Amino acid sequence: MKFTSQKPALPGFQITPMLDVVFLLLCFFVATSVYSQWESAVDVQLPTAETGETPDRLPGEIIINVSESGEIRVNERVLSADELLRRCRILAKNFPGHPVVVRADRRTPYDNVMRVIDVCRKADIYAIRFSTGDAEPSASAPAK
After folding, report:
1. Would the pTM count as exceeding 0.70?
2. Residue 38: which CATH number?
3. Which one of 67, 82, 100, 119 has the lowest number of neighbouring Cβ atoms within 10 Å?
4. Tens digits of per-residue pLDDT, 34-44?
5. CA dist., res. 116 & res. 119, Å (int)
């Protein structure tokens, strides 16, 4: 009696799961880029700084815009201090130690900025970054 040994067939390359992952990554990056554009479209004239640098955006990061009149905006929505506190507490719970970016108009009273800082501190967020614009070249400085 002759016994033949059959070699098991090698598994083929499955492309469907790989396409699913690539599609989900594409959706994630498209959605993220849209939100980052919305935040920079808010009409806030930032104060300038010569030593400012562009930081990397972090996942879950909240950008808080403070207008000249003291209006607080997050993701194109006007929020009260209580609503901002609720959102900041969720952020602190999900991303402990995560920074918050404050974009305050250059003409806003300092009281409005302190109100946002107090809300962040109540929510246990102490990593607060402030956004600035590019420094305007002065008349006495030579052009590069």
Report:
1. no
2. 3.30.420.270
3. 82
4. 555 455 546 67
5. 5
